[in-house]
């Protein structure tokens, strides 16, 4: 269990990934983005998650370079994730997309590269490309995002290497218990995107009550619930005080009764697209 912001989980291939990181979904290129990445590194974060489709890899790269320099850290101290977009799924295209992400981020390698969405008929070729990149040592770990159980089963029929991560929408109204059990049995680490349900849970009475009992914010309670469920989490924020506050989740513990109360909020409710029914 994570007791510190820099604690890691060991992925199936032995690579260590921080339990907690910064997400930059919908943060546009510019000083705000660069400063958010720098603030995260300065305040102890060691994991940054971006994607080609966010169109902000260059700013993330700048934030990483400046942040590492100012903190006196090396590239190896940071865990950086990006994802290949749907239009680039295909063996050659995916390899080219990886190189393009590296170029924009101004990095020599990525720690984790993910297939962003399970586009039918395309994700297997893309996975072969990820396996190639992995075997060539160009990326430390490979995985998927938004894959349901049947997508994972389909992928693993022909895969030489199992995904190490499955990053999915995950929050108290979408607890994904079956998917989590399946991933656990397969040695695939679950990771949460949109852990705070884009702010829609911050006034929830049950969560407010639990937060009050611990003198914590609702956001901190939700992020703590992620960690106690063994789920890697990457909350998004651009404001330094919020980036710091989000990470202050290692000095309290939810009781098993509180964990059950939060689990019981599940409604299988998504704020993002349905992985079984998307058209982009």
TrEMBL record:
- The UniProt record lists the keyword Disulfide bond: no
According to the UniProt entry, the coiled-coil residues are none
Q: Which Pfam families match?
A: Aldo_ket_red (PF00248)
Q: Which residues form the NADP-dependent oxidoreductase domain?
A: 31-267
One annotated GO molecular function is: oxidoreductase activity
**What keywords are annotated for this sequence in UniProt?**
Oxidoreductase
Superkingdom of the source species: Bacteria
Q: Which residues form the active site?
A: 54 (proton donor)
Q: What are the residue positions of the site described as Lowers pKa of active site Tyr?
A: 83
Cited SUPFAM superfamilies: NAD(P)-linked oxidoreductase
Binding sites annotated in the UniProt record for substrate: 116
Q: Which family does it belong to?
A: Belongs to the aldo/keto reductase family.
What name does this protein carry? Answer: Aldo/keto reductase
- Give the species: Fictibacillus solisalsi
The top of its lineage is: Bacteria, Bacillati, Bacillota, Bacilli, Bacillales
């Amino acid at each position: 269990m994570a007791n510190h912001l820099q604690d890691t989980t060991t992925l199936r291939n032995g690579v260590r990934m921080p339990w907690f990181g910064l997400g930059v979904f919908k943060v546009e290129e510019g000083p705000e983005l660069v400063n958010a990445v720098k603030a995260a590194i300065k305040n102890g974060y060691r994991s940054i998650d971006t994607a080609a489709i966010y169109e902000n890899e260059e700013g993330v790269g700048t934030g990483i370079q400046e942040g590492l320099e100012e903190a006196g850290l090396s590239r190896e101290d940071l865990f950086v994730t990006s994802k290949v977009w749907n239009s680039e799924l295909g063996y050659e295209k995916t390899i080219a997309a990886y190189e393009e992400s590296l170029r924009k981020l101004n990095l020599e390698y990525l720690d984790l590269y993910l297939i962003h969405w399970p586009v039918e008929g395309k994700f297997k070729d893309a996975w072969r490309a990820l396996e190639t990149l992995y075997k060539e040592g160009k990326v430390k770990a490979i995985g998927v995002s938004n894959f349901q159980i049947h997508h994972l089963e389909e992928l693993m029929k022909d895969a030489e290497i199992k995904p190490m991560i499955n990053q999915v929408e995950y929050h108290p109204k979408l607890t994904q218990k079956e998917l989590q059990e399946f991933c656990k049995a397969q040695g695939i680490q679950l990771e949460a995107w949109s852990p705070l349900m884009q702010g829609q849970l911050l006034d929830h009475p049950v969560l407010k009550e639990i937060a009050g009992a611990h003198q914590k914010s609702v956001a901190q309670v939700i992020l703590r619930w992620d960690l106690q469920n063994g789920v890697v989490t990457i909350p998004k924020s651009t404001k330094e005080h919020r980036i710091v506050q989000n990470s202050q989740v290692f000095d309290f513990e939810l009781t098993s009764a509180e964990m059950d109360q939060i689990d019981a909020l599940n409604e299988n409710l998504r704020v993002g697209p349905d992985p079984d029914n998307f058209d982009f």
